[in-house]
Design a protein that fits this description.
heterodimer, A: 650 residues, alpha+beta, Transferase(Phosphotransferase), domain 1, six-stranded antiparallel sheet, 42% helix, flat, B: 296 residues, mainly alpha, Arc Repressor Mutant, subunit A, 67% helix, elongated
Chain lengths: 650, 296
Amino acid sequence: MTTPALDLEDGHLDENAIARHVGGEATDAERARVAEHIDGCDRCRELLSALVRTLVSAEDDTPPKRTLPRGTNLGRYVLLDQVGRGGMGVVYSAFDPELDRKVAIKFLRGGRGNSAAAARALLLSEAQAVARLSHPNIVTVHDVGTFDGEVFFAMEYVKGETLLRAQRPGLAALQDTLALYLAAGEGLAAAHRAGIVHGDFKPENVLVGEDGRVRVTDFGLARAVSEHAPRFAGTPAYMAPEHWRGFPSDVRSDQYSFCVALLEAIEGRRPEEVEEASPTRPPDPVSLRRRALPARVSRVLARGLAVDPTQRWPSMDALLDALREARLPFRKSTAALAIALLVATAAAWVQHAVWERRVDHELFASAARVPELLRSQSELTDLLVQAGLRAEGVLKALGDASNMDAALGLAEDESRDQQLAEAHNALRSADLPGLKTRDVLLVANAWGRVVLNHAAPDAFGGPAPALPLLMETMEGTPSDALWSSTTLGRLGLPLVTEPREDDLLLVSGRPVIRGQSIVGMVLTGRWVDGGLLEELGRAAGAEIVLHSADGGWAGARWTETPPLGRVVELQRGGTTLRVLGIRLGGEGTRTPAGEAYVVRMLSAEETRGLGAAWLRWLLALASLGVLGWLGWLTRSSGWYGRARIRPPPS
Amino acid sequence: MTAFAHADAFWAALPAARHPPERASLERRLAEQLSEAETRWPGLSVDRRRFVAHWAARLARADDLGAAVEQLHLPDLFLAFACAEGDSRALRDFGTLLGTIAGAVRSVDASPAFVDEILQRLRTRVLVPDEGRTPRILDYAGRGSLENWLRAGALRLALNARRDARRGPEQLPDASLFEPVAPTADRTFELLRGKYAAEFGRALRQAFGSLESQERNVLRLHFMEGLSLNQIAAMYQVNKSTISRRMARARELLLARTRSALESALALPPAELDSLLEQLGPRLDVSLNSVLNPST
């Protein structure tokens, strides 16, 4: 036998054994030992299951159901065409000669449980309860019966489309969306009053007729036809959290599903928190922060989406009342907002005319006014102090780059680099929501200058000019770092997406070293290796290669390069880019993310134009704040947001 | 045909006790295998003698050397070794391989940030040596495919990360086993619930504990991990019908033992007990879930 003992690492199955097992290569003896191990080890069982789930289809290849021919008699109904096939079963159109009308016939899948007879009985009892419901916003069930051992419903035939198709995303259509959902909600509320839970509310289960009337369908069916435990009934993305904990759904679960559907209707897509939910993966709590929703609607949804059912609205009726209220003042506030905007814009232009000559260019070029502007910002001072820097120093660095170390209060020894790195990390990860966009820009500006001066003292033939640096991440989405293109984008500043010859590419991140060379660099949540790094290495010659005493990052040293980085030239797409590699994080610290930016020095003319544009915008915002709308707008963020410095995603 | 050029390095790395009496035919196979691996991953600058020694060391525990040589995933082992050596082409191929396992990570959490972070961590974990240790990719033994080895590593990191990030769901009170499934649940059940909740939970747990490990496993995998019969069959490398039988038997046993445990715990009239168990059938899955997830 060639069977080595079971590989275990820290008491868990070793990856070698797992790879062999899921690859179908394990011997009987190995397989038996793996089976024995996972019986007692939750983690390994979970791991193996996750693997099998990704490698093997769950399809149990059940044979497709036969289709009934046209003209089949079902009691008093004559079958016409198959019009749909869904999770619940097959839908046919049919004719009722007695009442001379068209009906829809829905056959339901088997029904849960072992005994077919018991399952049918359960299904029938549920169906009969639903058939007793009569409400304009509920699809009328005329009849319930069985045919050839299968349960079917005869229902009102609705000509129209599903709510999913009828709804239009976006705030512009918000009034229509709310009207549709208020109507669907009435249907739910009526059922709840009769003691019936829907159990699978979603836009596909709501029909909007050609007459415009909204009707909810498929009450209680998900639970009745689920082949698994009721826990697995319903559509995962809309299912309430208590479902996953094994509790049966109740009227409050319908509230949750309703709110998920409404949020989806407004935003045009399902909330990402529930997108990947599946029978084995509960949804994450849905967060309503940072969504472009009117605050009142957001409050209604937030309560309906509470993880704890007891924290939701006391009833569907209460939810609908709140939604109706949220809808009305919204119109008033929209009108008021328009007026406020007009006033604010006018004010901004007046202010701007006065300010322009004094502030505009100075802010970017000589930055003479910056210390004065910033001094009043105690939050900003706190931020800088947290970062281990003298607030005065950063301000001074903006205006005068000649002796930055002294200005920043940095020691003139080896620990300076450490201090700089720490400060950089602190600045990047600071979260001060009260800080204004302009402040962020100013700190970014100042700090960018500090880094450039230390990392590449000769890059510009002298101290780095006052920036702004316009940046775009080179790879992937902009990071939420201090120098965030999002922040700049909000100000209407252009982003550099097409690097040109005299641009500087800032590469920062955690280099990963193998032996004597960099094998990769972690950039903005993404791995860059091979091509770029090789090019970088070639362009840099020996100097950018990190040497490592023991082969690990912990002991890595930048040799022959300034501690923070080095500028090299890099050919890329026929363009020569200057690349500044900077290192983040002190020794022993983990900086999982890094960034690559294109940094462009702007000409005085460009700067002047930009300054005017963004200042105008800022002043407009400030005026809005004065008018007392700031708070309201901020809650309805998405139209514009306060600048936030957020920690990078870790 | 010349013999295996690195034969001496191979035998030197293998304990003498494992050397077969007849080496020539095996050496021919070794030469063929190495050339296959080189064809699979051309242009890797790897010190062949050191690789051959590494290869031989993977076989040191094999009783039947010939069979073990045939079973080993040599091209994968070759690539892994080249990665550890820092060969840039190998690292690029490794990057491609990482891309193919992203789907597995996505099954745990689909957000791009999460997937990137996990793949990044995996990469650092296997390529960057820890203090005083060779890179972990050298732990890859070639016994399964490198892809599955990486996939297992990635999923382990992903599951750990999710576990760290998320508090477990609340513990299910035993009484909830008796929550009516539908509002129309009948009166008998309403009466039974609450009255026997604790005993029922205990009986079910006891019955579950009395099952064979194999029976417990299929129930766990199906109800707790949500695997289909198809997937469980793949996990055990047996027929779906075998798993189906195992599952049915486990359920029957569970019901029967729960019944007898209840019988001895409660002095119930047979009619009432039957009624209770009749209700239990369709609810078994829910109840099992809470028994299987006592604290996670």
